[in-house]
Structure formats: C-alpha cells, structure tokens
Task: inverse folding
C-alpha cells in the first residue's frame, strides 16, 4: 500500500497538482497506520497532510461494534474529526447510544447527513481551516 | 552567480501546496458519498481535487462526475 500510495501521489502532483487529494483507504486500515503511510513521499514531493476524518456508520454501528470493536476504535483513535454518518436514517436514541458507547474514545462527534448541508459544510470548513493554518 | 535558484523565502512562500485529506471508515459508511460532496463544494470555490481510492472504490466515480469536476481518480493497490 505504501509504495503504491507514494507513486500515485507523485503521479497526481505531476499530472494535475490538485489543491486537495482525497484518500479513501480500505476499511482494514486504521488511522494510526494511515498517518504513517501518508507521510511517506514527503521526501520526494511537497504536500500538506490532514485532516484525517473517520466515519462511524450510524445504521450498522451495532453490528460493527459487536463484530469488530478494535477496528472501529482503530479508525477513531488518531483521527482529527470523527463523524457519525448517515444519521438521517437512524433515530436520535441510536445516535445517543453510539455517543455513550464511544465516550472516552471520542467526545465530539460531527453528526453527518448528506441530506443536511450544514453538517457537510462544517466538514468543509474544518478542511479549509486546517489548510489556512498550515 | 553559479545557479539561478530562488531564495529560500520564496520557496517557502510559494502557493499553497497539495493537501492530502483522508476519509476512512467501515465499508458502506458513506466515505465515497462524502468525498463526492466535498469535491463538488470545493470545486465551486475554485479548488481542484483528485482522489485515490481502494481497489473497490473507483467504479463509483462515473465519467459524468469526473468530467464535470475535472478530477482524476486512481486506484490504490493493497489498501
């Protein structure tokens, strides 16, 4: 993965030099590992890093928490922003339940719904703010 | 002068460089949908984007979307 990622970053930087390069890794990659891998390539090309955003899927949370709690915590730990996604198709009680279970691992969730533009706008602001600060 | 190189302060002060933004989570958590929405919003602000997706994600970026926002999508092998 690391070698492929470095090559692709170089390729895209050279080809179109985008302002933002979005990386969507496999679900098996946890955020700590991702941070280490993303740094590789800084020796060859210049780019800024972050934010690292983790989506906790609201509708399938119970299943994933029962089956793979370590993986979910691995996604959450070291993330800059954690969002509970697809909150428009679960009820508020479920959202609160997720918050309670994950309290301690994350205490500030973004409630994300693509039906609600303010939540995605908040994520855009987070990205742009981070870009301004660096 | 031996080399015509820019001074260090100019190199540091050059335009904002590419920023790598990572969107992770379990399968079907909405990662691709979120990325597509972010690309659309940032495009309206004049920002150009590219995407690196895992092996199973590239096909959801259809030609219409790619052409509309002038993005490039690449597959990440092994992750």
Result:
């Amino acid at each position: 993965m690391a070698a492929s990622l470095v090559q692709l970053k170089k390729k895209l930087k050279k080809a179109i030099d985008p302002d933002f390069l979005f990386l969507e890794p496999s679900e098996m990659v946890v955020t700590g590992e991702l941070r280490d891998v993303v740094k590789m390539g800084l020796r060859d090309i210049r780019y800024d890093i972050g934010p690292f955003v983790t989506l906790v899927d609201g509708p399938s949370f119970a299943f994933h928490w029962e089956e793979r709690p370590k993986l979910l915590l691995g996604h959450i730990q070291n993330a800059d922003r954690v969002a509970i996604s697809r909150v428009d198709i679960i009820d508020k009680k479920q959202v609160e339940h997720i918050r309670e279970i994950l309290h301690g691992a994350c205490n500030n969730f973004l409630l994300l719904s693509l039906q609600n533009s303010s939540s995605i706008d908040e994520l855009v602001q987070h990205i742009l703010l981070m870009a301004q600060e660096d | 002068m031996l080399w015509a190189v820019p001074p260090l302060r100019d190199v540091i002060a050059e335009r904002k460089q590419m920023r790598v933004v990572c969107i992770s989570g379990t399968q079907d958590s909405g990662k691709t949908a979120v990325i597509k929405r972010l690309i659309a919003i940032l495009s309206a602000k004049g920002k150009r984007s590219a995407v690196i997706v895992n092996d199973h994600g590239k096909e959801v970026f259809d030609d219409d979307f790619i052409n509309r926002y002038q993005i490039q999508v690449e597959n990440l092998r092994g992750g």
